[in-house]
């Protein structure tokens, strides 16, 4: 097998034994596994050759790019892992057309830098951006902190190139905004977690870089006032809120424990800490005035001041420099490290309507101690889109208890019109949830599609579908 | 058969003979056909019952809603037509959550009115809005004039309910902005032209109604200056251009012939007529100032004035009232009547990058007379998204000539990085184009999906897939 793979991608690009360490667990360490080998093709043609070989030899393939997922989507016992990390070229980047054409192994923050260099942004962003790669972002339809304004990953993709389970290459690298020509395979492959095809490249949408940002940390008496703030800012700015992130007091506390040199957001610790960021694109909102402020910053300060006077704000700090803005973001983006700083943890990733985040948390605060009195919740939320990362520090490695906690979280989320899965995907960790929560006719249709496109079941088996 | 169907949906809702006239051709009259019967279920359960019956009896079903398509997607010889027109309820409309929950038979303009009544908009709009229904909009992923700002139909849909070819109901009526739970069946069914399932209801996104619009007719020396205008307006307003529509002189002329009482856009007829509309949502852009103008109207006028002084504008008229604005829109929205006012016509619907619209038209002006010297082009374009409706008035009903003209249009569009199909879909009219232009691996995957979900081929056979 090793010789056959080496013939396809070169000996140096087939890893075994110790050389596979980097790929033999997810980054949280929750899942450990032993792939047969790791193969690192350097081109779409090489990916296709490996998949064809896998078909002929009935070998299962687990695609992997940045390996920063949280749902066990790259578990690869008894499979060959196909790493896309060598396909790391930005093939083209044309600001005038607002597109970047990138390979699956491009690291998200490298694309951020390349876009920034031409005064554009690729808006998708989240804590793992320094390791996460485009292939994984697309395969999980990653969300993150700017969904409120720019949508999920799929909303930022114009075209893709993918190797199908047969080894054939679907080339639909359209740069067009209208292109209705048959079933939308792009949207089918995005979010399919590598079970229907391996995305090798994509045409991504760039957006104009906001000419000015205004960023603040805000403390409110409850989440109700936070939503008032969000709505007032959206109305005042015509929908310019880029991010609206909720960190409870415990998030701040654990962040300080992990990073003792970090500054606390407020002099007095607060229960509700909101990171709000507004971005301005129209020149009239970006130009620094006589008062040394941009109009967008003035809108933010005026709104905060008014709410303070109405008693709806406990404290607020507006970033006065890019360094202060980055400090605010680093605190938020440490959430994965914070959640995984204690084990065992249960990474619940749910979504509810925005005004149901508070009732969800209130109900869980009652339910969790009933199930596991010694458990602790560690929460962070994209409040602007209703996505709550309700991580639970379980008291012990009890699998049955783990599942009943997950089930309770789902019960509560669904009771408020929510979803059991928001932005991390299903992988292996949410297969039981998928089985018990997803519409049966939808699951039947998904299984039929999987069987039709991958009859031998060679691509990322045991993931996504219960 | 009639008795069986009557037992499922009631005798009054099974049409035969003369009563089927309304459903026995497309609205252009280009396609005429004889369905076995037209059945009009009144609920999702009745749709499911009809599809189950069709499965058991091996009867083919052609779903239809507003029947305003241009690609022959409802041709129904030897099939039972399933009309969704009785499913015309807006089940719920909640401006605070920015959603409307509607059935497939809701007429687009009725949804516009319902949204308007609560100061919201459902942005999808096109000429046939007074007859087109939501089911057809979703099944074709309709585009229209506001795609520039709000996206295509699929970008406006949060959740759907659909009856699958088995008769099972896929219920994924999510209202959430993050909901990654398996393959995206929503996006697969949207744009599938009723071949994979019958969409019966949807959760649609509403947007805040712009507090002010500024609308103008503009004449430029060439399309190059028109794109300068588009870019300047987007930069000045931070992306507030709602529509940017191109009408050549011939469009205006034929419009005047059809509607002799209509006013011409300019005193002197112009070759290039652009309808531009900007919408403002932030209060600071909507408030009427001392000069009687909203700031958004002032931005538009200033931009037009500057370009006029630079010699980049030949003429411009800004709408001074809602009536004038409507007059501008009626002229644009008459495009289908204009194109179909002479027969035989070939409705080519292509997309190219924005800066390739002019080269596309220039090349076609040479190619068309070579193929059919007596043919005439009648063009209208969504210039803001590169979508050109390049209709050809063919000199005779010559099917071979018709196909070679279509092929030439595709050749030229593709040579400029375009697509052979933009917003009208494939239906039956573009099956040859689909066969010769679409990536073969993509077609193979589509056929596998169709066979898996609809093994008996009962849903809208002979459409979309070559």
From TrEMBL, chains A, B:
InterPro entries: FAD-bd_oxidored_4_C (IPR004113), FAD-bd_PCMH (IPR016166), FAD-bd_PCMH-like_sf (IPR036318), FAD-bd_PCMH_sub1 (IPR016167), FAD-bd_PCMH_sub2 (IPR016169), FAD-linked_Oxase-like_C (IPR016164), FAD-oxidored/transferase_4 (IPR051264), Oxid_FAD_bind_N (IPR006094). Its cofactor is FAD. It comes from the Bacteria. This is FAD-linked oxidoreductase. Its EC number is 1.-.-.-. Belongs to the FAD-binding oxidoreductase/transferase type 4 family. One of its GO terms (biological process) is respiratory electron transport chain. GO terms for molecular function: FAD binding; oxidoreductase activity. It is an enzyme of class 1 (oxidoreductase). Pfam families: FAD-oxidase_C, FAD_binding_4. Keywords: FAD, Flavoprotein, Oxidoreductase. SUPFAM superfamilies: FAD-binding/transporter-associated domain-like (SSF56176), FAD-linked oxidases, C-terminal domain (SSF55103). PANTHER family: BLL6224 PROTEIN (PTHR43716:SF2), D-2-HYDROXYGLUTARATE DEHYDROGENASE, MITOCHONDRIAL (PTHR43716). Gene3D superfamilies: 3.30.465.10, 3.30.70.2190, 3.30.70.2740, Uridine Diphospho-n-acetylenolpyruvylglucosamine Reductase, domain 2 (3.30.43.10), Vanillyl-alcohol Oxidase, Chain A, domain 4 (1.10.45.10).
């Amino acid at each position: 097998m090793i010789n056959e793979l080496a013939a396809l991608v070169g000996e140096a690009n087939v890893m075994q034994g110790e050389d596979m360490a980097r790929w033999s667990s997810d980054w949280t360490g929750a899942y450990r596994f032993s792939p047969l080998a790791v193969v690192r093709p350097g081109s779409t043609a090489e990916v296709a050759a490996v998949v064809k070989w896998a078909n002929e030899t009935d070998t299962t393939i687990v695609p992997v790019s940045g390996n920063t997922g949280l749902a066990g989507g790259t578990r690869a016992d008894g499979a060959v892992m196909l790493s896309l990390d060598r396909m790391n070229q930005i093939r083209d980047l044309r600001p005038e057309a607002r597109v970047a054409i990138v390979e699956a192994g491009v690291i998200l923050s490298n694309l951020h830098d390349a876009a920034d260099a031409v005064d554009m942004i690729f808006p998708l962003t989240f804590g793992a951006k320094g390791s996460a790669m485009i292939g994984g972002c697309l395969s999980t339809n990653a969300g993150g902190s700017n969904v409120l304004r720019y949508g999920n990953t799929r909303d930022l993709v114009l075209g893709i190139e993918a190797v199908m389970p047969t080894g054939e290459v679907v080339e639909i690298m359209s740069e067009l905004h209208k292109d209705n020509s048959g079933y939308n395979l792009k949207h089918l492959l995005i979010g399919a977690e590598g079970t229907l095809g391996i995305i090798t490249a994509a045409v991504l949408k760039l957006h104009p870089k906001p000419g000015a940002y205004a960023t603040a940390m805000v403390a409110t008496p409850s989440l109700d006032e936070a939503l008032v703030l969000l709505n007032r800012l959206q109305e005042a700015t015509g929908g310019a809120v880029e991010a609206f992130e909720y960190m409870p007091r415990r998030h701040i506390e654990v962040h300080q424990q992990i990073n003792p040199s970090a500054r606390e957001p407020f002099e007095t610790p607060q229960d509700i800490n909101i990171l709000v960021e507004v971005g301005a694109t129209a020149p009239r909102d970006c130009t620094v005035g006589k008062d040394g402020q941009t109009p967008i910053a003035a809108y933010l300060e005026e709104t905060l001041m008014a709410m303070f006077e109405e008693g709806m704000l406990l404290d607020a700090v507006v970033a006065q420099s890019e360094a202060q803005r980055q400090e605010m973001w680093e605190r938020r983006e440490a959430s994965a490290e914070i959640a995984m700083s204690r084990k065992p943890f249960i990474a619940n990733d749910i979504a509810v309507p925005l005004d149901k985040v508070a009732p969800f948390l209130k109900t869980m605060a009652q339910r969790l101690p009933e199930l596991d009195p010694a458990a602790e919740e560690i929460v962070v939320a994209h409040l602007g889109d209703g996505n709550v990362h309700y991580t639970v520090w379980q008291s012990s490695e009890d699998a049955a208890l783990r599942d009943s906690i997950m089930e309770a979280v789902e019960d509560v989320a669904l009771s408020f019109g929510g979803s059991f899965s928001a932005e991390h995907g299903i992988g292996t960790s949410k297969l039981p949830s998928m089985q018990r929560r997803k519409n049966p006719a939808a699951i039947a249709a998904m299984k039929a599609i999987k069987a039709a496109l991958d009859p031998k079941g060679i691509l990322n088996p045991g993931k996504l579908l219960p």
